[in-house]
Write a structure and sequence with these properties.
single chain, 4 helices, 7 strands
């Protein structure tokens, strides 16, 4: 079996690790930056192994739902979850706009403090994916950073505001 394609994005924030961690684990902060340019509603955020993050992004054409189950939570160093598209009842489902998109992505976010700054690394890997899903993900990897980068730009501004 060949190695699965993995998308990795690194970003250094001018903020202490504990604060960057909070922006991923406090629903009021997370909803401010996650899903930029849409209304993000966090229905549940239980950042512990086995806990769920249930997220709705409201757009002009309707809502998009995501369900994430935390596998590992090591405060303030590491979050690992299985991230998936969901229906309005929070059942894992195919992406309605990209049927071959992986139903589940293993998502790992690490936070490393470096002289008062935080290096955050996000990785995405298809989880229990079909060949078609792996291929779709691999073909999309060149564009995956755009959405995350837009959110991280909002996060960067938010972190500056929180430290004033």
């Amino acid at each position: 079996m060949s190695e699965l394609p993995t998308f990795v994005l690194e970003k250094t924030f001018e903020a202490p690790r504990s604060l960057v961690w909070r922006t991923w684990t406090d629903p009021k902060l997370l909803s401010r930056w996650y899903g930029p340019n849409v209304e993000t509603i966090i229905h549940q955020l239980d950042a512990r192994p086995g806990g769920l993050w249930l997220n709705e992004m409201k757009m002009s054409r309707g809502s998009s739902y995501q369900r994430s189950e935390y596998l590992e939570v090591v405060e303030p160093e590491r979050l690992v979850c299985l991230m998936a598209n969901a229906d309005q009842n929070w059942n894992v489902t195919a992406n309605p706009m990209m049927p071959d998109w992986p139903r589940i992505l293993l998502t790992t976010v690490t936070f490393k403090e470096e002289a008062g700054r935080t290096l955050m690394t996000l990785s995405w890997t298809p989880h229990e994916a079909s060949d078609a899903e792996i291929s779709c993900f691999a073909n999309a990897m060149g564009n995956l950073g755009k959405g995350w980068a837009a959110g991280f730009d909002v996060l960067e501004k938010m972190l500056a505001e929180l430290q004033v």
